[in-house]
Amino acid sequence: MNKQQQELRKKSPVQIKNKKASFEYFFVEEYTAGIVLTGTEIKSIRAGKASLVDSYCYIINGEIWVKGMNISPYFYGSFANHEAKRDRKLLLNKREIYKLADAEKQPGYTIVPTLIFIDDNGRAKVDIALCRGKKQYDKRMTMKEKEDRREMDRAKKRF
């Protein structure tokens, strides 16, 4: 991810993160994908009513789908409101999808959504990552590093 893309994400009014993913997995490669949504789904995302907990991506027939993403029904929606946990199609180039499909076939690898944000044109985008699972000792190491960073920040604030 280059600097310009990171700046766009920081400016986005909506940033829904999958905090559990960085604890459970090592990120090998990251991609930004568009997402196919209905009318009330984009309104709920703009209101910040979405969650990426326990969601993952899978590939079927050369298409990539995200399963388990929860987008709450829109409060002002009527009979045309959407289903909260339906599978949603992601938009990537065929080359990227084939590359992800080959990598996912290897044992220990999976594709996980890490962030939902709104780009400059008002479209919802999803950052997905090809991930390799962490072992228990890796998770303990991550917790220790995080704790050490907090301790150092507290020490800086005291002085």
Structural class: alpha+beta
The radius of gyration is: 17 Å
* Largest sheet descriptor: 7 strands, antiparallel
Q: Helices and strands, in N-to-C order?
A: HEHEHEEEEEHEEH
Shape: globular
- Alpha carbon gap, first and last residue: 35 Å
Number of strands: 9
Strand content: 25-35%
Number of helices: 5
How would you state the average pLDDT, rounded?
85
Detail the poorly predicted runs: none
The helix fraction, in percent, is 25-40%
Q: Which sequence of strands runs across the widest sheet?
A: 1-8-9-2-7-5-4
How would you portray this structure in words?
With 159 residues, this protein is of the alpha+beta class. The chain contains five helices and nine strands, in the order αβαβαβββββαββα. The mean pLDDT is 85.
Question: What secondary-structure arrangement, pairings included, does this model have?
Answer:
Blueprint: H1 3-11, E1 15-17, H2 19-24, E2 25-35, H3 39-46, E3 50-51, E4 56-60, E5 63-67, E6 70-71, E7 88-91, H4 94-104, E8 109-118, E9 124-133, H5 136-158
Give the structure's gist in a few sentences.
With 159 residues, the chain is of the alpha+beta class. Helix content is 36%, strand content 33%.
Give the tags.
159 residues, alpha+beta, seven-stranded antiparallel sheet, two-stranded antiparallel ribbon, 5 helices, 9 strands, 33% strand, globular
